[in-house]
Amino acid sequence: MRIIISGGTVVTASDIVKADVLVEGGIVTAIAQQIAPDDHEIVNAAGCYIFPGGIDPHTHLDMPFGGTVTADDFRTGTIAAAFGGTTTVIDFALHSKGDTLRNAVATWHAKADGKAVIDYAFHVMVGDMRPEVMEEIPLIVEEEGITSFKVFMAYKNNLQVDDETLFRVLRMASQVGALVQVHAENGDVIEVLVREALAKGQFEPKYHALTRPKEAEGEATARAIRLAEIAGAPLYVVHVTCAEAADAISDARKRGLPIYGETCPQYLVCDETDYERPDFEGAKYVMSPPLRAKYHQEVLWGKLKNMELQAFGSDQCSFNLKGQKELGRHDFSKIPNGSPTIEDRMAILYHFGVHSGKIGLNQFVALTSANPAKLFGLYPRKGTIAVGADADLVVWDPQVQRTISATTHHMNVDNNIFEGMTVMGKPRYVFLRGHKIVDGDQFLGKPGMGKFQRCERFAPFPL
Ligand SMILES: NC(=O)NCCC(=O)O
Ligand SMILES: [Zn+2]
Ligand SMILES: [Zn+2]
């Protein structure tokens, strides 16, 4: 495996340089203006960008949710991710009520091991924060190489934690070098609004959005930030959708607090009017938090441009319309939450961000790869192109145009929320630790090639 990727433009979060990249033994061993070939395989990257492999910090593969299980597992989901230019996913190991964190992690290893075609790490999504579960956090960090824990301020009577619990988790996590991720929506308010809507006979998908107002997200985000501030802890807010939440993050960062925000492709290019689609098609867009009014898209783009949001995750959580989303055909509250986004995460940010002039190439790499690597303890092994880093590389052809469709995507699901969108930019080749796993429309990887990545403890990189 001695490869020269030749004639491309290498892009990292800080640099853009025309250079060849030498790969030996799965590692980048040189970056230079011209590398003389010996017995190397030459990969033609003329006219292309060479990006560090994408790191998707937010996926749900093979996850039970809402009485069903996501349509994509670690095989199909990571193949689709690879076609989109992602070489590492950080998936949420779901901890269920009554279970231990250790057992949840073991369950997730069993789901991924031998199936993943790209590298993977885990966060733990804590479903039941009993005192003894909280006590397990230091062990998970030390022994399992998992250093991030998601807690929920929504999904009342199910996953939701109260403020006392959130505060205790924040304190405990920061003591052991872990990062708390928060799903910030006020679950108590939402519960009342959902009950009232159903009592009024409001059953269609659009009521999912109407019962989860932006203010409920803004309030919970601001509250979580205040609790983190009191606890002296860093905080990562997942799937930020609206001005109210994004502004709370910006304000905290202006005060010097280590608060980080993530948004997702769906919140940049889809909006609340998608819930009005006829014949139950609106159910495709049922996710939490929901899609917002269109003006929030410009707010989020502005925050990405100014790096006031630091990470870009897919929140991949795919369900078929047929047989899965249909569980809520007559009651929006029973529609499984989530959408298939793992494959098109980078394409959406590239086309609507870089190609449209809203963000720069360095920002694109920071959001899709470098910052997730820094925040979750994978940097600089991953998230950059540098001597000694894993040769997770994407040769990205900015001239290729394609139209996104469920009929051609690689996800194992019958719908795509970006259906019909035409985008510029597509991976020509994708390398995982020096192995070519994607060559145009051909998949060359194998289940089991993806390896579990232990995460280092949280380090406050200046982001
Ligand atoms: N986002 C969503 O609707 N489903 C996945 C679970 C979550 O991230 O809250
Ligand atoms: Zn969430
Ligand atoms: Zn999620």
From TrEMBL:
This protein's UniProt keywords: Hydrolase, Metal-binding
Residues recorded as bearing N6-carboxylysine in the entry: K150
GO MF: hydrolase activity, acting on carbon-nitrogen (but not peptide) bonds, in cyclic amides; metal ion binding
Domain Amidohydrolase-related intervals: 49-422
A GO CC term assigned to this protein in UniProt: cytosol
Signal peptide: none
InterPro entries on file: Amidohydro-rel, Hydantoinase/dihydroPyrase, Metal-dep_hydrolase_composite, Metal_Hydrolase, Metallo-dep_Hydrolases_sf
Cofactor field: Zn(2+)
Changes after translation: Carbamylation allows a single lysine to coordinate two divalent metal cations.
Pfam hit, one: Amidohydro_1
Tagged with keyword Metal-binding: yes
The organism's place on the tree of life at top rank: Bacteria
This protein's record includes keyword Hydrolase: yes
Family of this protein: Belongs to the metallo-dependent hydrolases superfamily. Hydantoinase/dihydropyrimidinase family.
PANTHER family in alphabetical order: COLLAPSIN RESPONSE MEDIATOR PROTEIN (PTHR11647:SF1), HYDRANTOINASE/DIHYDROPYRIMIDINASE FAMILY MEMBER (PTHR11647)
Record NCBIfam families: D-hydantoinase
This protein's name: Dihydropyrimidinase
